[in-house]
Amino acid sequence: MPSHRPPSPQDHGSGRRGAPLVTLCPYSFLFAYLRSIRLEARPVSTTDHRSGTWLSQEAHDRLKAELDQLVGGRAAMAAEINERREEGDLRENGGYHAAKEEQGKMEARIRYLTDLLRHARVGDVPKSDVVAPGMVVTISFDDDPGDTEQFLLGSREIASTTDLTVYSPESALGSAILGRKPGETVSYTAPSGADIQVTIVSMEHFSG
Known about the structure:
The protein is of the alpha/beta class. Helix content is 36%, strand content 19%.
């Protein structure tokens, strides 16, 4: 019988992004760094703006360090673009266009991180008697009550700082259990289109 367990966010992988440079350059370290991080600028939802995205202190510090490094790399990126521009006809200058693409991704990531950190709620999770971001939740799948899963409900930016699977409050599962109490049963539609019913077994505040 096929499992109805939702795919883990880590199952999808992030992959490499950005076109490679045609030749090595003095700023190749910056391009290597940009490819090593997830540069997509995920929009912050209206919920995030109103109440702030919860981040652990460790995740906040890591993202702040990343933002500082990206901002500090702007001058090197601009110098690289100018150097590539001087190579000649821009219509056939692959290095120039690759550098401009990387610059666009870098600026998008800077905007995303700046907005996220400006509105973030950092540290201890506020006490609550319902499921909320920053809680470790255990659920059981109602087609097999013995099949349980434990995960952290919170920003996907926290994933690299914990061994727990992280589900966003905006995900199908996350939005279904948000504001619910242990013992309640909810249903949600998985990306595959299957309707899945789960029961909230327990919840506890994330302690890092």
